[in-house]
Amino acid sequence: MAKKFYEKDADLGYLKGKTVAVVGYGSQGHAQAQNLRESGVEVIVGLRKGKSWEQAEKDGFAVYTVDQAVKRADVVQLLMPDEVQAKVYREQVRPHLKSGAALFFSHGFNIHFGQIVPPEDVDVVLVAPKGPGHLVRRVYEEGFGVPGLIAVHQDATGQAKELGLAYAKGIGATRAGVIETTFKEETETDLFGEQAVLCGGVSELVKAGFETLTEAGYQPEIAYFECLHELKLIVDLMYEGGLKGMRYSISDTAEFGDYVSGKRVIGEASREAMKQVLKEIQDGTFANRWIRENEEGRPEFNRIAEEEKAHSLETTGEELRKTMAWINKGAKESVTQ
Ligand SMILES: NC(=O)C1=CN([C@@H]2O[C@H](COP(=O)(O)OP(=O)(O)OC[C@H]3O[C@@H](n4cnc5c(N)ncnc54)[C@H](OP(=O)(O)O)[C@@H]3O)[C@@H](O)[C@H]2O)C=CC1
Ligand SMILES: CC[C@](O)(C(C)=O)C(=O)O
Ligand SMILES: [Mg+2]
Ligand SMILES: [Mg+2]
């Protein structure tokens, strides 16, 4: 049984009198910094000069270069992209980390794959929201929270877990529930989820459905509504009531089609591919590939990203969404600006 923590299990008092430096002000950084501040925690932001710096200042934070923020901090939460964390850690974090301070992560990649090896006199804690940063902020503002995971890699002070739970409470995660894990389990399951299901799997499923319909001569707008737009509405039902809740709401015709055709689309070959994806995450093949890709200037990443943006699914959707004023554009605008 997973060990779970809620509001009553976490005490914000462990952060009292402490300064939290949120390093990075992107998807997770802006959300965690703002949620913590509204929970009464003293937060500063660490950055390089640029777009995020201006935004963090506009949002009312005291912003410092990374080294200066780390010098002032008792808790340092690294919320830069995973692929830049190790270099920034070596050059601007490690030399200024106070003895007895805490180093926090929201994804275990750099610790688990040995890219960051912290000194023995600091706590090393993972507080990983199980949701995109823009939702971590939006859901908190609505009075709720995105669930999270907590793990302690190193407990130098004897209070690492309590501090982690206080932080999880500060960002709203204990409102929904926080599960205890390890850096290894979080890293491997998070990478698997985003590759096989949430991002990679779903994107390919949507594109395959869209292409099957349009290549058969159906209108792209109808293919878009069927394979992408309505997916959100169906997933909302799953989110609220599981697969059972979704099946309660759809027609019996759809439910029968679900049972007999779903397994043909996601069959043995897909399950075998999932196992291979997981194996390459577990044995470090994916991590090494991602690290090398960045060292080489991201040729594969950039090429595929350009191809994906130009897909007719995207151009069709962009046009259709113009009339859907109710769709929250917050996340999209901040990543495409
Ligand atoms: N995205 C998400 O929702 C989730 C992310 N995570 C984890 O959270 C962490 C942060 O990811 P995410 O929020 O997506 O990151 P983003 O890419 O959204 O944000 C990156 C931030 O880091 C800053 N930055 C980049 N390079 C440097 C640098 N060299 N020095 C200082 N600041 C820098 C950027 O500033 P600038 O404007 O100057 O480029 C920006 O503010 C990762 O570990 C990720 O795995 C975990 C759960 C979900
Ligand atoms: C699903 C992608 C994610 O793992 C997340 C939002 O949780 C990420 O790394 O961005
Ligand atoms: Mg994730
Ligand atoms: Mg992830």
Descriptive report:
Belongs to the ketol-acid reductoisomerase family. This is Ketol-acid reductoisomerase (NADP(+)). Keywords: Amino-acid biosynthesis, Branched-chain amino acid biosynthesis, Magnesium, Metal-binding, NADP, Oxidoreductase. Its EC number is 1.1.1.86. The protein has helices at 27-38, 51-58, 66-72, 82-93, 109-112, 133-141, 160-170, 173-176, 183-198, 200-215, 220-249, 252-265, 268-282, 285-295, 299-309, 312-321, 330-336, and strands spanning 4-5, 19-23, 42-47, 63-65, 75-78, 102-105, 123-129, 148-154, 178-180. It has 337 residues and is α/β, with parallel strands linked by helices. Strand 2, helix 1 (27-38) and strand 3 form a beta-alpha-beta unit. It starts with a strand and ends with a helix. Residues 190, 194 line the site of one magnesium ion.
What descriptive keywords fit this protein?
disordered C terminus, EC 1.1.1.86, binds the ligand CC[C@](O)(C(C)=O)C(=O)O, 337 residues, 9 strands, alpha/beta, 9-stranded mixed beta sheet, single chain, 17 helices, binds magnesium ion, binds NADPH dihydro-nicotinamide-adenine-dinucleotide phosphate, Ketol-acid reductoisomerase (NADP(+)), metal-binding, branched-chain amino acid biosynthesis
The order of strands across the largest sheet is 1-9-8-7-6-5-2-3-4
Q: Write down the secondary-structure element order.
A: EEHEHEHEHEHEHEHHEHHHHHHHHH
Number of strands: 9
> Span between N and C termini?
43 Å
Bound molecules: NADPH dihydro-nicotinamide-adenine-dinucleotide phosphate, the ligand CC[C@](O)(C(C)=O)C(=O)O, magnesium ion
What profile does the largest beta sheet have? Answer: 9 strands, mixed
Radius of gyration: 22 Å
**Mean of pLDDT:** 96
Indicate the percent of residues in helices.
55-70%
As residue ranges, the low-confidence spans are 333-337
